[in-house]
Structure formats: C-alpha cells, structure tokens
Amino acid sequence: MKINYSFAVFLYAYLNQINLSLDRSRWEPLDNLRDFYRSQISPKKVANYLIDKLGLNVEKLNYLIFIDEESLWEKIKDSLLSSLKRDIILDEDKVYYLCQKLLILDDFLENGEQVHRLEIEKLRIEFSTLNYGTIMFKLVKKDRLRANSIEHFLQNETLRTIKICEFNKGYF
C-alpha cells in the first residue's frame, strides 16, 4: 500500500511517541497517561485516517493479524532507496496490523478500566517492532533524527523536543 512520504514521517514520529510514552508509563498510574493523550492526537484518529485514505476493510481488523519481520535485505534495500523515492510502500498486512494495534491502544486509553501492565508492554513492543523494524528504514536519516526528538509522556524537561503537531501536515 502506497503512503505519502510526509505521512510516513508523521507515522514514524507518532509511533515513536507511543513507544516512549508507554515505556515511561510503567512507573505511573495509567490515568496519567490517559491525561497526556487527551492533549495529543488520538490513536483512533490515526487508524481511521489510514482506514479511510487506503480504503481498508474494517471487518478484517477483527481478525488476528501476524506480520513477518523485515529481512535484512529488505532493510538494506529500503535504506538505499529512501533518498530516491517520495512514496512509501507498506505491506497490506502491516497496515492492517498497525490499525488494529492503534485501535487497541485507543480502547486502553478511553476505557476507564485498569489494564494489566503486561498487556501495555506487549502493545509497546508490537508498536516498536513495526516502527523500528520497518518504517524507520524507509525514511531519510534527517527525518528519522528529527522524529526521534518527539515529545512524549514523562519526558525529560531539559531536552528539546518537537511537538507531534509539527509533523502533522494537515492530516488531523
């Protein structure tokens, strides 16, 4: 599935924010993370954008979807081609997987119930694997470095971070 390059940069920054925020939330009550995400772009908005933009079958999101790890050759090829192309190609299963995980995270954040820490950690690892195992290699180095400075939950206040809205090119 073809994704606009600037949206892929946003997606990388957004998934990085999720990974860092879920990691930092391990030492805090889940309600504090929920408060943080009330001022951020909700995972459901990102999932719905992908569903609408790419014409995904919503019913397929109810099924269990597995993704394979990118091969070393794919990572090298994507890194070499990243400076030459402007559109990003993601496997259909990876896009469905991403939307499914975003909707699960949104449910965790919106649902007032307590969620077991292992479920959140599993979700963090799934986002991290997709982001750093696939999307990262499709971006130019300067965009990756910029997106790595994304604001997140419980961030060190002395560090200079970039707000997620700076990556949002009118998508939300």
Describe this protein with a few key phrases.
7 helices; mainly alpha; 172 residues; globular; two-stranded antiparallel sheet; 55% helix
Give a written overview of the molecule.
With 172 residues, this protein is mainly alpha-helical. The protein has seven helices and two strands. It has a two-stranded antiparallel sheet with strand order 1-2. Helix 1 packs antiparallel against helix 6 and helix 5 packs antiparallel against helix 6. The two termini are 20 Å apart. The model has no long low-confidence stretch (mean pLDDT 87).
Major beta-sheet overview = 2 strands, antiparallel
Record the strand order, biggest sheet: 1-2
SSE pattern: EHHHHEHHH
How would you classify the helix and strand content by structural class?
Answer: mainly alpha
Q: What percent of the residues sit in helical stretches (DSSP H or I)?
A: 40-55%
Radius of gyration: 16 Å
Distance between the termini: 20 Å
The total of helices stands at: 7
Number of strands: 2
* Share in β-strands: under 5%
Shape field: globular
Q: Determine the mean pLDDT.
A: 87
Low-confidence stretches: none
Q: Secondary-structure map with pairings?
A:
Elements: E1 2-4, H1 5-24, H2 30-38, H3 43-54, H4 72-81, E2 87-89, H5 92-110, H6 117-133, H7 141-147
Antiparallel strand pairs: 1-2
Helix pairs in contact: 1-6, 1-7, 3-5, 5-6
In short:
With 172 residues, this protein is mainly alpha-helical. It is 55% helix and 3% strand. The longest helix is centred in the first third of the chain and has 20 residues, at 5-24.
